[in-house]
Amino acid sequence: AAAAALAQTARPPVKVGAMMPLTGGGATVGESGQIAVELAVKNINAAGGIAGRAIQLVIGDYQTEATVGVGEAKRLVFQEKIELLLGPTYSQVTLAVLPIQNEAKIPSVNVSGSERLTPEVGPYAFSMLANAEAQSKVMVDYAVKNMKVQSAAIFSDVGAQAKTAVEAIKAELAARNVKLAGVQEYQYRQTDMTPQLLALRRGAPDVILLFTSNGEDTGNMIKSLNELGWNVKVVGSFGATFSGPALKIAGKDAYKNTVAVNYKGFSYCPSEPTPKSFQDFVASVKAFKPEAFERQPLAYLSLWYDAVYVLKAAVEGTGGKTDGPSVAAWLETNSRSFRGINSGLTASKSTHFLIGQDALTVVYPDRQREGGLLERVGC
């Protein structure tokens, strides 16, 4: 450790910006991102930094607002002079700050899922989140094959990723000859979703396909369902797996009719042992932030944690270069070689989404092992 610290002092630090919503409607998501990034930076610096340079982390709170995000991106890029960027989360914010990032040729790894995040729109931006189209295909496929549904309603938040998902779900339903029974959306942290659910109930769908970004919204939706006495099946996106907040809001039976999409690497069958790499990650988060550990979705934290290591691998793979073109070219060619909490990454010149459809599965969000592994449906 002493040798690593001495080596780092010989070179200037690499400034890494991290954009996350520490306040506003997405504050719980922001807290998780901050914990994961700070832990990764701590571990990387203790091991010698990135290409022998210590990481200097600069955080920007965009308050779950795209306009605030633009201001924070300008501060990080033009005032703080960051070389690498982590985040943002919500797709509408990521899309809003891309022009600033592109102008300065800053490479980034975000946690956003809109299909509008193409290599053409964000040539130096990559995502650790499964994109909206991949999640939508898994959701519809499960509803058709496992539930044998004839009709489906779509319920989503108002974010850019969700809007992309709605169109993808519509297309997938049409391809499967499943009737679209209705479409509604809600604002982040809306506590009473009764009006939208009443509108959807009039269409008598066999299932609600819920595209949500956090556990609070999932809980409020299920609570509203229960208050209506509507006993309809729900298939949720990755955001619906954040069961801690959902169970707190909607009660212990919140997930009796609900399943959701998750990363295969964060699922289990009862007969399988928990992977050691995941056990070690859980232990490190618990030791780092014990007071916040119980409320953290560990699978989501792993995306932020790995994002830091993805950038480290790319910079070191280029011989220490931090410019956007060099980092992007390396990731397009070499992302499959990455071994982190999440492996089997799939970025290429045609897609900068590091997680593909084959890495997803359907789980019971309330059936957890320690650390947040969720039981796979069909075990």
Write up what this structure looks like.
By secondary structure, the chain is α/β, with parallel strands linked by helices. Helix 3 runs parallel beside helix 4 and helix 11 packs across helix 12. It is 43% helix and 18% strand. The protein has an 8-stranded mixed beta sheet with strand order 7-6-8-9-10-12-13-11, with helices on both faces. A 5-stranded parallel beta sheet has the order 2-1-3-4-5, sandwiched between helices. It contains 12 helices and 13 strands. The chain starts with a helix and ends with a strand.
What features would you highlight for this structure?
43% helix, 379 residues, 12 helices, five-stranded parallel sheet, 18% strand, alpha/beta, eight-stranded mixed sheet
Mean pLDDT: 93
Unreliable stretches covering 5 or more consecutive residues: none
- Content-based structural category: alpha/beta
Quote the beta fraction: 15-25%
Give the C-alpha Rg: 20 Å
Number of helices: 12
Topology:
Layout: H1 2-9, E1 14-20, H2 27-46, E2 55-61, H3 66-79, E3 84-86, H4 91-104, E4 108-110, E5 125-127, H5 132-147, E6 151-157, H6 160-175, E7 179-186, H7 194-201, E8 207-211, H8 215-228, E9 233-236, H9 243-250, E10 258-263, E11 267-268, H10 276-288, H11 298-317, H12 324-334, E12 360-368, E13 374-376
Parallel strand pairs: 1-2, 1-3, 3-4, 4-5, 6-7, 6-8, 8-9, 9-10, 11-13
Antiparallel strand pairs: 10-12, 12-13
Q: What's this model, at a glance?
A:
The protein is an alpha/beta fold.
